[in-house]
Amino acid sequence: MSRSDPFALRRADVRGTFDRAGASYESAALLQANVGQELLDRLEPFDFAPTAVLDLGAGTGRLSAQLKRRYRRAQVIALDLAPGMLQQAERHQGWRRRFARICADAAALPLQAASIDVLFSNLMLQWCDPPDPVLAEARRVLKSGGFFAFSTFGPDTLHELRSAWGEDDGTHVNRFLDMHDVGEALMRAGFAEPVLDVERTTVTYPDAFGLMHDLQAIGAHNVTAGRPRSLTGKGRLRRMLERYEAYRRDGRLPATYEVIYGAAWASRDRFEHLPSGSELGTARGEVHIAPSQIRRRRPT
User: Fold this and answer.
1) Under a CB-based contact definition with an 8 Å cutoff, are residues 104 and 79 in contact?
2) Is residue 300 part of a domain?
3) For residue 82, is it within any domain?
4) CATH number of the domain that residue 251 is part of
């Protein structure tokens, strides 16, 4: 990625904004919760009996808890970049059904190769631009024949807000990959038989400030490289609000979300040559551990 790319995302910025949103996330993340439930429902037809399940980009762990209830005998790992999110995940821990929590970057997973049976990721990939390093890591940690289920946002997401900002200086809405680009990235990473489909949903608000409040509450701040570096003046904000009003229907302003649902299988294992218990990446000071080695934290 070019350093001059105005839509580039710095991982440190993404981590910071979601870290600060941990406490307010669930109060505003109704869409995210609905998409996550749909993604969970799509696992229902598969008769999985996994030993290790990874919730990648787990956020506050609400879906990790549901995965643990579904796969009771499995080691379920909630992994997220933001420690503030994982702190909130303690609220979803059950006394008898607990899941592990790991704070790490999805592009550098601290897990052994071929150690995960099912990898689940709800609305995280859109924060990984480009997605290739994350998908490569997802493929690395999946066992041969392992299953990857995910959701992400497509390019029609928040098109009203993007249009309302118009020709204003800087970038205001993230770049989102379309379904075909996501499918090609899956194939490059070594996944087989990818299946993707798109659903569109609309959330409505009394005014644009309601939308912006929700985006801030869930941590979806504008952290693109080309974002305006100065405070938005009253004139620019007024023009954006006026343009957004053109979308008002039945007294409400819409915010469109294009949701891509995807599933793929891990093809022939590229890591079968590694002996059991191998650790990768130690030259960089990293340690990759097996899920079974993650100790359960006793309730206090």
Assistant:
1) yes
2) no
3) yes
4) 3.40.50.150
Q: What is the pLDDT of residues 210-260, one digit of tens each?
A: 999 999 898 887 666 665 654 455 778 889 899 999 999 999 999 999 999
- Packing angle between helix 179-189 and helix 132-141, nearest 10 degrees? 50
Residues 169, 37: Cα–Cα separation, whole Å: 37
Instruction: Judge residue 221's burial from the number of C-beta atoms within 10 Å of its C-beta, 0-12 exposed, 13-18 middle, 19 or more buried.
Output: middle
Q: How far apart are CA 38 and CA 87, in angstroms?
A: 25
Task: Kindly state the helix (H) or strand (E) to which residue 179 belongs, with its residue range.
Answer: helix 179-189
Q: Is 177 left (phi over 0), alpha (psi -120 to 50) or beta?
A: beta
Asked if residue 163 lies in contact with residue 175, where contact means CB atoms within 8 angstroms, the answer is: no
pTM tops 0.90, yes or no: no
The token duo for 137 is: 């890591």
How many distinct structural domains can be found in the chain? Answer: 1
